[in-house]
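F.,

This is the one I mentioned.
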C-alpha cells in the first residue's frame, strides 16, 4: 500500500470518527409537540417607520459597511412590510438586491430576526420552516422596535450572513434600545 493511499485512509477514518463523535454529543431539538404558555414573537405592530428615519438607518448601515470595506444592499420596510428605503452600495452584487428586501420583509412579517429561521433549520433541523410562505433562513433581517411596537425592519445582503447581520444590527441599534 502506498504512503498516499495510507494517508487518505487515515484521513477518512479520522473524519468518520470526528463526525460520529459530534453526532453522539448532539442534543436533540425540542419537541414540536410542546405547547408554550404564550405565543413567541408576539410584539404588536406600531406606526410605520417614516421615510426620513428609514433613510437615516440606510446611512448608518452604509457607514458601518463602508468602514469594514463591505459592499452591501440595504433595505428598510415599514410595519406592513412595504419598502420605504433601499440602497445598493457601489459594487454590491445584483443577486442580493431582492434578498436584502426579502430579509427585511420576513423580519417584520414574522416579528423576529431572520437568524431565528436560520437557527431553526441549521441547529434544530426544523426543515418544516422552509415550507412557510415568505421565510428566508438567512441572517441579516432585523425588526425595528420602538416603545414595544414593531415599526419596520432592516435587511442587508451581499456579504456573508454574519456580515449582513452585523451591519443591520449596527443600524437597528439606533432604534432598538
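My design for it:
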Amino acid at each position: 500500500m502506498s504512503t498516499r493511499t495510507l494517508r487518505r485512509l487515515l484521513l477518512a477514518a479520522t473524519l468518520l470518527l470526528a463526525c460520529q463523535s459530534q453526532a453522539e454529543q448532539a442534543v436533540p431539538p425540542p419537541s414540536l409537540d410542546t405547547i408554550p404558555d404564550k405565543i413567541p414573537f408576539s410584539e404588536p405592530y406600531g406606526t410605520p417607520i417614516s421615510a426620513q428615519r428609514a433613510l437615516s438607518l440606510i446611512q448608518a448601515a452604509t457607514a458601518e459597511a463602508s468602514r469594514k470595506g463591505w459592499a452591501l444592499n440595504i433595505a428598510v420596510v415599514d410595519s406592513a412590510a412595504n419598502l420605504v428605503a433601499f440602497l445598493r452600495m457601489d459594487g454590491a452584487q445584483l443577486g442580493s438586491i431582492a434578498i436584502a428586501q426579502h430579509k427585511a420583509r420576513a423580519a417584520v412579517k414574522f416579528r423576529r430576526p431572520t437568524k431565528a429561521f436560520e437557527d431553526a433549520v441549521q441547529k434544530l433541523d426544523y426543515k418544516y420552516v422552509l415550507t412557510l410562505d415568505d421565510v428566508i433562513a438567512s441572517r441579516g433581517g432585523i425588526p425595528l422596535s420602538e416603545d414595544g411596537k414593531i415599526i419596520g425592519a432592516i435587511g442587508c445582503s451581499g456579504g456573508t450572513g454574519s456580515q449582513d447581520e452585523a451591519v443591520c444590527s449596527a443600524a437597528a441599534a439606533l432604534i432598538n434600545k
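The first helix runs from residue 3 to 25.

Talk soon.
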